[in-house]
Amino acid sequence: MVDQRPFGRTGVRISSLTLGAMNFGRRGNPDHEDGIRIIHRALDEGITAIDTADVYSHGESEEIVGKALAGGRRDDVFLATKFHGQVGDNPQHRGNSRRWIVRSVENSLRRLGTDWIDLYQAHRPEPETDFDETLGALTDLVRQGKIRYIGTSTFEPSAIVEGQWIAERRGRERVVSEQPPYSILARGIEREVLPVAQRYGLAVIPWSPLAGGWLSGRYHSGLTAPISGRAERLPARFDPTLPANAAKLTAVDELATLADEAGLSLIHLAIAFVLEHPAVTSAIIGPRTLAHLESQLGAAKVTLSEDVLDRIDAIVPPGTTLNPADTGYQPPSLTDPANRRRGGTTPRAAGPVR
To answer: Is 219 a catalytic residue?
Structure first.
């Protein structure tokens, strides 16, 4: 059911849908056997790429993925994971430093039950850590055979270009992919991130094509309160009474009408939209249940007409993110006033990692 697309200029091909494992473990679905069934179903339907992270349920997601791939299924999967977010209670167990990367990769390899990771990604930028420090450590891991490729997630265009410059000038392995947030409701990456990725031949594997559930069919203009635990934890993104989220509700109603007129589910419309962009390699879907997976699989075979795409553009204009909280990352230059005032101290970058 799922086609295969080139992964940048690496020569590798992966499925146009990537199975995201964020919802496996105590953070989402705590049933390990159910998670394994979902993973096996996705593989049976032609998904060849799985994305997880050490921070998802404090490593439990990686453990579930490892169990699912045991017994001979590992070799057929393009396996991606990430480092950066704090794992556990120790504040030293985080970041983009060589010290943490070397430790983090060993932990991920153990939890995943594998000798190598296909794509190892910096989960967020860390401006106070020299990017060359990060790429130097990752380059060593490539040469040791522990990882195959280097990726980034939710990096700004300038940082993406900086990574390419460092690789060329300092003899580091090149970053080959970027994993940004992208959906009909969050189109900001169309301005620079996607064109930059195309210019440098990077694969793009967007997260949250359903906008954190906003495009799942559960949200509508009559909502007056958050409808999930995740929504309660992240009110800036999900509280329907906030003006930016009210704008999303209005757009969702219009998109639902459009999907119905096109003979599609809203889920298929949303995922197919992300896959339509020529810079996109594979859209990450993050089911919590088998029913969620089944509702999303068919989107890989949907092609949107020019008329439907034009109508989407009229509802949410190209390059527009209706709620800035959905960008996934705000640099310290915006989040900490000290960076905009003489005499301020250099802050630590970091916000919650999805």
So the answer is: no
- Secondary structure letter of residue 47 according to DSSP: -
How far, in whole angstroms, is CA 260 from its chain's centroid? Answer: 27
- The CB-side HSE value for 70 (13 A sphere, CA atoms) comes to 13
* Terminal Cα distance for the chain, rounded: 28
User: Phi and psi dihedrals of 207, rounded to 5?
Assistant: -100, 155
Active-site option among 56, 120, 149, 219: 56
Between strands 203-204 and 175-179, the pairing is: parallel
Indicate the SS3 state at residue 238.
Answer: helix
Question: Are 94 and 85 a contacting pair, CB within 8 Å?
Answer: yes
Output the pTM of the full model: 0.94
Per-position pLDDT tens, the chain of length 354: 789 999 999 999 999 999 999 999 999 999 999 999 999 999 999 999 999 999 999 999 999 999 999 989 999 999 999 999 999 999 999 999 999 999 999 999 999 999 999 999 999 999 999 999 999 999 999 999 999 999 999 999 999 999 999 999 999 999 999 999 999 999 999 999 999 999 999 999 999 999 999 999 988 887 777 676 666 788 899 998 899 999 999 999 999 999 999 999 999 999 999 999 999 999 999 999 999 999 999 999 999 999 999 999 999 999 999 999 999 999 999 999 998 898 766 555 555 567
